[in-house]
Amino acid sequence: MTGVRKETRWRKRRCVTPVLPLLLIISFLVFSSYYYRADETALCSMQSDEAVSVTQTTYGWLFDGPSEDTALIFYPGAKVEETAYAPLLHLLAAQGVDVCLVRVPLHFAFFAPNAARAVQNTHNYTDWYVGGHSLGGVVAAWVAADHPEDYSGTILLASYPIRKLPNTQTEILLVGSEDQVISWRHMESGRAYASEHYFEYILEGGNHAQFGSYGAQHGDGTATITAEEQIRETVDSIKDALPN
After folding, report:
1. How many structural domains is the chain composed of?
2. Do the beta carbons of residue 67 and residue 97 sit within 8 Å?
3. Residues 6 or more apart from 77 whose CB is under 8 A from it?
4. What is the structure's pLDDT at 34?
């Protein structure tokens, strides 16, 4: 009788065990369904104008400005609609760096680390950069570290590398002084992984969310500059740091 009872209990456990992974998957899908959406300013910047052509592609969107050889592959932040970065990327393209904005599954960049390769297979730029905002920047830096020969550098917004970046690459890091979302401790430790060609900019009065256009972010600090000022200063800093 004892053996029968043990077998019965084992069978019950075997039936119940697969339920936990299923619940975890469902919970994550529900969690990821709530994300920050692009605001009206971002939607307006998704329109083409005389300086920049915005087109939808198989990987996401291309902001095609006057550049013929330099492009940035951009990963969005976690739980942020990709098009929320349109004002920043539109202006950057107008200033001479075309931008390939990648669409990522469930709005989490770590589900699409190979998206950069798909972008490079689509276009013929000779000078590639990879970057992103927040978690998107972490993934971008990971891609750059894994493929040092493919990229001229990384552009990290409110982000940091978690692996050593090649000294052959330029690293540009920007963060707002009022950012309360980023882990400043992790950003400090990320300096140990920096490239020899490292540029860091603290945007006085900027915060985490204003690199994009999706409204206030939970837990963020209050910016003392406008979103337009933060975007303009970000683009100017990137242009100053890039090799001529």
Report:
1. 1
2. yes
3. 109, 132, 133, 134, 135, 136, 137, 158, 211, 212
4. 59
